[in-house]
Design brief:
By secondary structure, the protein is an alpha/beta fold. Helix content is 31%, strand content 29%. Bound molecules: guanosine-5'-diphosphate and magnesium ion.
Length: 170
């Protein structure tokens, strides 16, 4: 039969990794070179059709700064899915992504579908984090991993579709 489901999804990751840019690419098909940084969190929604289901994502795009860290549980609590974003040109952002994964493993919904996004894949010449390293980490931690670019749109729809496919069907 046909299923319609609502899925709360949260984006977590270092400030500047490209969380807002990924959501805006997915929801509006746009990219801004000077994306304003998020204050607190921003809400978006977008519906995708996969297999026999329509999934309405209710997306919380969080700020990422340390001073907003205490707010994060409000956004990931009860979330069906999370995208943890780092910037492939920043080893610090990759380290921060791992911290978020640990926090979700401890405090998040145990059935949460988790995706790791190595964003800014268009900046190959500035790359600091290899795809191999990130892929290995993702495999060890039960996440699925993909490199994305909000700028060129590479793998942006794909990451949301893959999450939609993996959500448990009611
Ligand atoms: P957030 O703090 O994680 O929400 O990051 P933003 O979405 O605000 O992006 C931070 C900066 O990185 C902005 O200047 C964006 O234009 C830029 N940016 C985001 N995604 C990409 C990408 O895929 N490629 C490139 N080259 N720049 C990006
Ligand atoms: Mg933002």
């Amino acid at each position: 039969g046909h299923h319609n489901l609502n899925a709360k999804l949260v984006l977590l990751g270092d400030m500047g990794a490209g969380k807002s840019s990924l959501v805006i690419r997915f929801v509006k098909g746009q990219f801004l070179e000077f994306q304003e940084s998020t204050i607190g969190a921003a809400f978006f929604s977008q519906t995708v059709a996969v297999n026999n289901a329509t999934v309405k994502f209710e997306i919380w795009d969080t700020a990422g700064q340390e001073r907003y860290h205490s707010l994060a549980p409000m956004y990931y609590r009860g979330a069906a899915a999370a995208i943890i974003v780092y910037d492939i040109t920043s080893t610090d952002s990759f380290a921060r992504a791992k911290k978020w994964v640990q926090e979700l493993q401890k405090q998040g919904n145990p059935n949460m579908v988790m995706a790791l996004s190595g964003n800014k894949a268009d900046l190959e010449d500035k790359r600091k984090v290899t795809a191999e390293e990130a892929n290995l980490y993702a495999e060890e931690n039960g996440l699925f991993f993909v490199e994305t670019s909000a700028k060129t749109a590479v793998n942006v729809n794909e990451i949301f579709y893959e999450i939609a496919k993996r959500l448990p069907r009611a």
